[in-house]
Amino acid sequence: MTLKNDRVAASEKDALRGGEASKSEGVKLKKELGLLDGVAIIVGVIIGAGIFVSPKGVLQNSGSVGLSLIIWVLSGLLSTIGALCYAELGTMIPKSGGDYAYISEAFGPLPAFLYLWVALFIIVPTGNAITALTFAQYILQPIWLTCEPPTEAIRLIAAVITCLLTVINCYNVKWATRVQDIFTGTKILALIIIIIAGLYALFAYGSPNFDRPMSGSTVEPGYIALAFYSGLFSYSGWNYLNFVTEELKDPYRNLPRAIWISMPTVTTIYVLANIAYVAVLSQDELLSSSAVAVTFGEKMLGVMSWIMPFSVACSTFGALNGAIFASSRLFFVGARQGHLPQAIALINVKRFTPIPSLVFLCIITLVLLIIKDIYVLINYLSFVEGLFTTFSVSGLLWLRFRKPDMERPIKINIIFPIIFFIICLFLVTFPCYVSPWEVSVGLIMIVSGIPMYFIFIYWQNKPRWIEKASETLNLLCARTFMCVLEDQPAA
């Protein structure tokens, strides 16, 4: 890490800036994302492996089919309200970086750094690693047929696909967005097949799951909160377009329009897909299946059942691509603000992509792929993400009070952020007594960033060898990846 105002030798600074020539050319992230690209990023990141592989978390914690479907609807509604709150934040603070930029503006550098700290080492690379492993699992499954593919083969394929998508994102923004558009369409098509087959079965044969849909519903607030966690986890990604606001054409119009198109679409697809699942599979089959869509395909699609594992692979491929594209901008902005090594804030002079940030994210993801118990980290992610989302929306409320005259191209009714804040507070608080271990570990992960902040960010007169190491890293990345610092940070 490095201080925002590191001392850099004149020649090194010139190399990082790219000289006068690059200044005249305007080396910065380009606005290349249109409305369709924005919709593809939101839908493509939200619809990952979860809806195909394991939607049982909502059913398990809610206790009944009826309550689980209600929670799926409410989770989509809550995510839409959250996305609208972020639309106000994203147009009021038109910087890439999402939550990091909003928390920084509202509460200052330390809370923003703590979010960046947890996102950098836990939230983003763990999510990417899990998605890559799921892709590898389902792309290899047809080869091994009746047995599980070897763990080594799964990890190798996961590493290869992570590197491949990183290269695509480094090479060209348009390539990355085309990949996103294609695979978003593929996964929606697969879900439409599930929905049509399930609804046909429901109307043709009926389903005992709908005879007494509310039977067995839980009344424990803690378990209802955990059911919402599972539902909201499947909707996670609705804020990823905010990570790339600076690259979105006409963000004041396209950001809210992308949200209004994406969120109702995803909610409708999710609810209908779950209705299809419970129409075909028994409650026991749903709770015991490790891949619900595959089990569904085996019962309904016959010789065409191979479509489901293929669809899971396509879905995870697109979700991983979208996550790599968006989250790399989070770390780019963090470095631009001086909260990460300056090298991560460099932009390639030909491709106009943040190559060092993409490579850095790829390396951390590959390291996590080596860890045997990586899936354990998922247990702690929902609480941590929920906590920082609560911080962001509370920042919106705080800025309404502290800076009432701040320009707000989009200003939603105050009741929406208040509702969203109260529900987020409920979801963060109640699991504390149901899952105290996961909550405690999540808090430890966050607090561990405090000494890092004071040592590497707050401490002004650091030893010269730390600054020298930072300067060396900056210059090495600049020369290796043909990168320079951004000419002028977007306003």
UniProtKB/TrEMBL annotation:
It is a multi-pass membrane protein. GO terms for cellular component: plasma membrane. GO terms for molecular function: L-amino acid transmembrane transporter activity. It is found in: Cell membrane. The chain crosses the membrane at residues 33-53, 65-89, 110-133, 153-173, 185-203, 223-245, 257-280, 306-332, 352-371, 377-400, 412-433, 439-459. Pfam families: AA_permease_2 (PF13520). The keyword Chloroplast does not apply. Keywords: Cell membrane, Membrane, Transmembrane, Transmembrane helix, Transport. Signal peptide: none annotated. Its main location: membrane. Belongs to the amino acid-polyamine-organocation (APC) superfamily. L-type amino acid transporter (LAT) (TC 2.A.3.8) family. This is Large neutral amino acids transporter small subunit 2. The lineage of its organism: Eukaryota, Metazoa, Ecdysozoa, Arthropoda, Hexapoda.
